[in-house]
Amino acid sequence: MSLSIYNTLSRKKEPFEPVTPGKIGIYLCGPTVYKPSHVGHAVGPIIFDAIKRYLVYLGYEVTWVVNITDVDDKLIIEAANQNTSTFELAERITKDYLDAMALLHVDGIDLMPKASEHMQDIVSIIERLAKKDIAYESDGDVYFDVSKDEGYGKLSNRRIEDQEGQRDLKSGDKRNPGDFALWKAAKPDEPDEVKFDSPWGQGRPGWHIECSAMAMRYLGDTFDIHGGGLDLVFPHHENEIAQSECCTGKPFANYWMHNGLTRFNTKKIAKSDADPEMQKALIRMTLHNLLVEHSPELIRFLILSTQYRSPIEYSDAELASKRKGIDTFYRLFERVERLCGSSPYGAAGQIGNPPLNDKKWAGPALESDDLRKACDDQLDAFTQAMNEDFNTGVAIAGLFELAGTINRTIEQGKLESAGSEEDKQCVLTAAGRLICISRLLGLFLDPIEKKSAGDDGVADKAMDVLIKIRQHLRKEKKDFETADMIRDLLADSKITLEDRADGTLWRAE
Known about the structure:
By secondary structure, the protein is α/β, with parallel strands linked by helices. The protein has 16 helices and 14 strands.
């Protein structure tokens, strides 16, 4: 089955055909670095990191560009509020963002250009548009004349009149209300560091032209995939298309992919950003705080459990549900390691990538016909889901099925109390193959580690005591209410107990 992608431009799924055979260029709109990144800023990078991993698996050479917007009105205002320079603020927030991306295993970004470092590219595009009388100067500002672009509105299906009142400044007179700023004249009260030289005097670029310049600089006049959140379709991406295609006379990006927005389903979030309760909620949902409270792999699992065009539901209840889901895999991997005396992560390391066009897996042979078929069938289901517009939600559902098959094999064969070494090796190999498939999404790259209070194992000792007390309450005292209270209190502290026939295990997120 060939790869198909839903194209916002055509509003339908299309077979994917790269501009250059075997190579793919992807541009994803990155953050405006004026405030700490929140969970919504992780959605696009995680989705496109998984997409790049899969495209590389298919054999493509992929160049993925994510920009940093470090020249913007919001940066100037926030830097003044913090009594610092715009570039000190931008550098600090960029580091915060990159630290979060590293924890989330967003490893595939090839280039992260900054707007401040591409002024000549920006000015060059504006000059080319001005020579065609598509861009014009007005009191030091330079605007794009939307009436000169016959195709304006083709991405968002909106009228030219709808552009008025968007993010750009309107200090000079415009030819049309919907014209948007390509260059903004410097103002006397603005810091010198955001005043750049240009043929129209000192100033700074508009928001939209920055992305066009960086995308074309690194990926060419026409490239394969442009991504971003659904909220960027208009005006940002619409204006990118207009200025880029009027400049070059060529298509800008062939496929436009837009991920669904994050819905913060929290009762305490109030009606406006100024509300104190809203401020508390937003602070809690910064990536820094989120990754202190929850494991990065859980956040990645949450985002990839939904098809990328659907909204991402973010709430405590949704996180709890996804934690329960990912624990299904963690419990299986621990169970296999106890059974076999060897980690399935190690088995995955021997296997590497799953086979692409045949069923010849690397690593140890899988002698069980049922497990071999289950692994092959789920690899087929996985690739089918990913080839159908990168449906990671369906792909992950298949991983659950394979995990269930491996667990049933252990139970039906009573491998924890009997079973041959050959049977156990089959289970280990199957679990390794499950991890290998999952790694195409950037999941289960590393074994989970138990949190401890120090190298002396204090946490392990304390948990052993709690588990023995709880067992005594249940078996000797028949005090199930208190035993359950211990379990629930530990769960509130992100510590999970698993009662098994051979004892109780614990895991801390």
